[in-house]
């Protein structure tokens, strides 16, 4: 219902809208310091979302607490505080992490034993930093007195981080209580509620029982205790997402906050007014257009509800509310001017070996491209994604892959088509377009894409493809440099979106091992209700160059995953 003003009979809603537009136009034309004050004061207006994007919250933001550029050294087991920033020796010292898991405990990751999950986490920590050492053992060793048990117990009592998972045995609980007093960081999940969590030497406890930390409050009211509570919440939220990447992330957050800086988290710190000044100085029209566009404004508000490290949340916001205004905003603020001053790098690890032979012959660049093109020509798509390892990008339903050669000589393109369930509970189709260049070695490729105004660059590897093209495994490393996001992942593909048959499982597990991925890490893609996908490739595009896909016998590997 529109309410009219009794004096001039104009709709009040329209008056307010024009007043807000006039205010923002005046602000954008005003001297920069006046605009900064305006943005800071008008916290109830839509433009407040802009200040949030720049990290200017009215209270200390979680992202600055969890990922600050400096940290407070905590006392070691001898009660001596060491400064990692001022000591070259400590900056390269080994970080000692010990994980104790309940004997026979099972994780929610497809029923995999917790001990296996954390042993794999220990391996993945080495990809971040070779000096991150994590020892994993069952709490049964706490009741033993052999040499291995004694060594493990000593390591736990003198560790930098003690991670307790699914420990409820009272004997084990008593041992941990007695021997963790000098450990500065103790984090307990799915364990006895009598165990005390510590971060940076400060005890924190949950108000209610739960599988994670729960709602935390410090046992002290000091500012440091409040910051510790914020870090605890970050760790709790990450753990609750129940995937292997976030389990590793929990450990990295604690290392970064209380032991020494973690390189992969350096891009996640707010820059404050420096960021805002850059945005206003260079991107005034794009900011205004974004704030006046409902979808773009919703995207900014949505992004500011996400942790900067929660790629699932961030990408879902973007995919839900993408619009030309959002693309123009991101292109100016991030890609052209890098106002957030970020510089994410493509991860170097794990190093994944490419496929070298196909059907008994050495793999060439041309044949590798044909493997990407896959079933396109016989079907309306190259491949359908069965499952993926990256929770941010591989979990969307109904994923189709289109690989093809362009009209220009040597050009090659990749277009993924996928569904997104928006935050408004609508199912929409999205499509991206990647330029693909051959790597130096056959079966390796360099991808680049402009995604909502931000360029992402990725390095892809064809790890394996079965001789009959009934399935394939592709691995990727990538980074959106100016967005501060680095990532890795892998996609398992087949012609119909169904999982490979049991007879192929041994070969599939071997291919996953080359990527440093366990089968239980994969997210199954929902391939039901996929009608109406916007497929098709440009006229004049070319497909295979080395073999005729129609000469292969196509057969269904089973029912599509629903």
From TrEMBL:
<feature type="domain" description="VDE lipocalin">
    <location>
        <begin position="277"/>
        <end position="525"/>
    </location>
</feature>
<dbReference type="InterPro" id="IPR010788">
    <property type="entry name" value="VDE_dom"/>
</dbReference>
<dbReference type="InterPro" id="IPR044682">
    <property type="entry name" value="VDE"/>
</dbReference>
<dbReference type="Pfam" id="PF07137">
    <property type="entry name" value="VDE"/>
</dbReference>
<dbReference type="InterPro" id="IPR012674">
    <property type="entry name" value="Calycin"/>
</dbReference>
<dbReference type="GO" id="GO:0010028">
    <property type="term" value="P:xanthophyll cycle"/>
</dbReference>
<protein>
    <recommendedName>
        <fullName>VDE lipocalin domain-containing protein</fullName>
    </recommendedName>
</protein>
<dbReference type="GO" id="GO:0046422">
    <property type="term" value="F:violaxanthin de-epoxidase activity"/>
</dbReference>
